[in-house]
Specification:
alpha+beta; Rieske Iron-sulfur Protein; 7-stranded antiparallel sheet; 4-stranded antiparallel sheet; 11 strands; elongated; binds FE2/S2 (inorganic) cluster
Length: 212
Amino acid sequence: MDDERLHEGPAGGARGGAEAVDEKRRKVVQWLWRLPVIAVAAGGGYGLYEAIRVHFRKLEAEAEPEFEARPATPVASLATFAAVWDSAEFELPSAAAGEPPTPALAVRLPGPVPGGIALDTGLNVASAYLAAFSRVCTHQQCIVSLNRDVTAINIGFNHQTDSPALTCACHLSVFDPRQGGKAVSGPAVRPLPRVRLEVRGDQLYATGIERA
Ligand code: FES
């Protein structure tokens, strides 16, 4: 071999070095074109995991919500809730100074939900069921609204229902206030936090929010 190298001289050594570099380049190129395939496979696996998590792991609202106290805040007069699905939006002050308030919404429901209140009323009915929810979507913190357009929920939000719901326009999550704010469609998994309500005279007050 020493003899061969002697015969190859400096030109032969350079050729061998160039071949080694070419071989390294070939290996790098082979890996480079595999990278998109690996990325697509990983993305597909993650997408499948998320789809399963989102569709089959939606959390129920707690049967007995635990509330964190907030400064008592007037929501609306009871007369505001004269009919089922009448609602009022309000802001619940933060517990800590300097933090923003929580947008929230109180709504009259057709039946009781945990964390809501039932009224024997002067609302021309035997009783009324009121509940309130944070309007901060549990997916990525957009603001949800009470959507009374059932057709829009069925088609636009791809959720079959026969009653109004709280909907988030950002990524089309739907929350059912009749189920304590449970996420029933879209990417959100956790229910909307409920807001504690109290009646003082003819006014509805908010006094706390469900712990996350
Ligand atoms: S932020 Fe509401 S669905 Fe994404």
